[in-house]
Amino acid sequence: MNIGIIGSGNIGGTLATLLTATGHDVMLANSRGPDSLRETVEGNDRLQAGTASEAAQFGEVVMEAIPLKAIPGLPTDDLEGKILVSAANYYPDRDGQIDLGGLSQTGWVAQQVPGARVVKAFNTIWFRHLAERGDTTKPEDERRAILLAGDDEEAKATVADLIRELGFAPVDTGTLEESTRQEPGQPLYNADVTGAEARRQLSS
In whole angstroms, what is the distance from residue 85 CA to residue 115 CA? Predict the structure, then answer.
């Protein structure tokens, strides 16, 4: 699968490494431009650098791992019809005050990119756990949980399969409206729990 990643920081960079290792072709982009990623992509035949627009066009699935305040700058036209995985979290101290209009954080993201099929995922895991905790040899219930949410069931299923490929347990928290359960400050945010433990907490 071709995957575009917008944001080359801890989460975006780690995902690029993991996804290419599992056989996907990845285009990585950041706000500083492709030249800044030369060393990152060097030696990895499945990884290339591009602009945000190029990464969005390249990917069958596109992942964003950028501050919430940067979401309005995403290439909306290039994301039309694409699965957009949002790992953004809202931190007012970093992002400033953003009027979410009563929406969940990722509901607001979807409003900014109205043509995309938005799935919230990879926002509740420390990048070192993402890099080190995936284990495809374990039963799914025993793997480290990665939460996801969205309104498009087919898009969620695609993202869940990617999570499984990386050796984690996808745990569905519901719709974009219900994705508040995986936002900062909630019990499961950054919780180091297995798939079984996460599902128990969500059902209690």
Answer: 13
Which tokens is 54 given?
């190029």
Q: How many CA atoms lie within 13 A of 11 on its CB side?
A: 20
Q: Is 122 helix (H, G, I), strand (E, B) or coil?
A: coil
Q: What is the pLDDT along the chain (204 residues), one digit of tens a residue?
A: 999 999 999 999 999 999 999 999 999 999 999 999 999 999 999 999 999 999 999 999 999 999 999 999 999 999 999 999 999 999 999 999 999 999 999 999 999 999 999 999 999 999 999 999 999 999 999 999 999 999 999 999 999 999 999 999 999 999 999 999 999 999 999 999 999 999 999 998
Check: CB of residue 9 under 8 Å from CB of residue 36: no
Taking the whole predicted model, whether its pTM rises above 0.90 is answered as yes
Kindly state the tokens that stand for 138: 């374990």
Nearest to 169 by CA among 181, 157, 160: 160
